[in-house]
Structure formats: structure tokens, C-alpha cells
Amino acid sequence: MFAELNDVLNASPQRPDTGKFTLLRDTRTDGSFLVHHFLSFYLRAGCKVCFVALLQSFSHYNIIAQKLGVSLTAAKERGQLVFLEGLKSCLDLWFGEQEEQSGQANPLQFISKSTSDLKALFDFVQVSLTPASSDSWKGPVLLVDDLSVLLSLGATPVAVLDFIHYCRVVVCSQLKGNIVVLVHSNEDSEDEENELVVNSLCHHSDLILWVEGLATGFCKDVHGQIKITRRVSLELTGEQDVVQIYQYKIQDKNVTFFARGLSAAVL
Questions:
Q1: 3-state secondary structure 110-178
Q2: Which of 72, 109, 148, 253 could form a disulfide with 184 if both were Cys (CB 3.0 to 4.6 A apart)?
Q3: CB neighbours (10 Å) of residue 12?
Q4: d(CA 233, CA 235)
Q5: Which 3 state secondary structure label does DSSP give 30?
Q6: Phi and psi at residue 143, in whole multiples of 5°?
Q7: Does pTM top 0.90 for this prediction?
Q8: How far is CA 14 from CA 2, 87, 141, 181, 209, in A?
Q9: What residue ranges in the chain does DSSP mark as E strands?
Q10: What's the helix, strand, coil split of the chain in %, to 5?
């Protein structure tokens, strides 16, 4: 995890929030560094994590997690991490190599069916995060990288939003856990289905981290801008949402944040 991001968010693995839905949104840049942060953050916090990884392989995430001081292999072996490797699941379906394990269907079976029902994926999440009597983990966490891939695989916006709704009911409301979801976004895009999902999720998120590439193009000292929105208005206290804007630079094992125009390279 990135210490500076924890400072910006006023977060600590010793006291993780509960019942929160966090939306990670990227535009004209790659926001995957936020996924790696939250994955390592919740594993360090001792939470049970279900990671629906639709974009990269397990080895990819594990290599980066090791740089951040966390072993995904060890987390899987001790039962703290349930990892759904979307790439492998898709190949199993497409090439007929699926082997049902423990009587559970492939979570992405909607790909090979005429309907875009995501019930099998929801069932996978629910079974993975429902605590057993012997579990000593803290609150459960669902992490999705990234939700836009489900649309690309044929799921409808309604099916994706229904999936998120039911996950929120189970994970956030019933189990007092957290959900973190990454979506790609481009306000100039003609992909109306993706923008419908993004806009809907924004209205229901407790915390939004929106990273954007610089409008001026590439810069070696400033990699992008992050807009952090705390949806205080959801708590019905009459207060306005709290918005913070920073620029950032991604390093090998860290990310630095600074006010706009205050990069060390220009001071």
C-alpha cells in the first residue's frame, strides 16, 4: 500500500472502515495503482478479500503486491484471499476446459449463455465472503478490477448494476464489509452503456477516487491528477460533499501526491 495515499484518505489498516462502497475511476490514464493499493491495504488490515480480477493474471498482481510487501500466494494459502482469475475462467469457457470445483459453476458462465445474468458471479462472491465459524478475519472486502470488462464480455448495464446492488446488500449492509470497484471512463466516449454504469455508481458511492491524465499530455514528473470525493451528502446530514484535488507521480514502490502546480520538479 502507499503510505501517502493513506495519509490523504486519513486511512489506516489498523482501523479500516466498514460498510463503505469505494469507486475507483480512471480517464485517459491507468488507475490500476489504486487497485494494488487497496488490495495490499485490506490484506494488511487482516480482512477477508474476494478479488474478482478480470484484467490481469494472478502472477501480475502478485509481483506488484510483493513490491508493496504483501504475498498474494501466502494470503491464498492461509484462506485470507479468494482470487477469481477472469482470464483463465474465460478461456475455460471458450475452449470447453471448465472443471466445476466443489459443485460450483464457473462464475463467468454468462459468457456462454444467451442471457447476461450475473447470478453465478454473485453466488461466487457470497460464498467466498460469508464467514465460517472458524474464521478470525476482519470485515470482508470485495475488490473488482475492472467492472467495465463485464460489459465488454456481453453483460448488460442493468445486469452489472444489479450485481453491484446485491453485492452491496450482502457485503456492505449484512456483513459490514467494504467494496472497491475500478471502472474506466471517458466523458467523450460513444460507449453509452459504460458511461451509464459509471454515472450510476457515482451516485451510490461513499468515496470516489477519480484519476485523470493531464490535459497537456505526458509529463515525466507529474503523471496525472486525482480527485477525491467523500460523499458526505449520502449520510443525510445536510452537509456538502468534501472534494480534494491533487496531482501525483507514480514511483516503483510508492506514489507521491502534491497540490496542483507544486511538483518538486517545478519548485
A1: HHHCCCCCCHHHHHHHHHHHCCCCCCCCEEEEEEEECCHHHHHCCCCHHHHHHHHHHHHHHHHHHCCCE
A2: 148
A3: 12
A4: 5
A5: coil
A6: -125, 130
A7: yes
A8: 15, 33, 15, 22, 21
A9: 21-27, 47-53, 81-85, 138-145, 178-184, 207-212, 224-230, 242-250, 255-258
A10: 35, 25, 40
Residue 265 pLDDT class (50, 70, 90 cuts)? low
23: left (phi > 0), else alpha (psi -120 to 50), else beta?
Answer: beta
59's CB contacts (< 8 A; 6+ apart) are none
Instruction: Characterise 115 by phi-psi region: left (phi > 0), alpha (psi -120 to 50), beta (else).
Output: beta
**Residue in 85, 112, 115, 116 with CA at minimum distance from that of residue 101:** 85
* Those residues with Cβ within 8 angstroms of residue 164's Cβ, 6 or more apart along the chain or in another chain: 147, 179, 181, 201
Question: pLDDT grade, residue 98 (50/70/90)?
Answer: low
For β-strands 178-184 and 138-145, DSSP reports them as parallel
Residues 151 and 189: their CA atoms lie apart, in Å, by 15
| Number of neighbouring beta carbons within 10 Å of residue 157 | 18
More confident position, 249 or 233: 249
Q: How many CB atoms lie within 10 A of CB 123?
A: 13
| Cα–Cα distance, 24 to 198 (Å, whole number) | 10
Which residue in the block uniquely carries the three cell numbers 476482519?
138
Fill in the DSSP letter of residue 102.
T
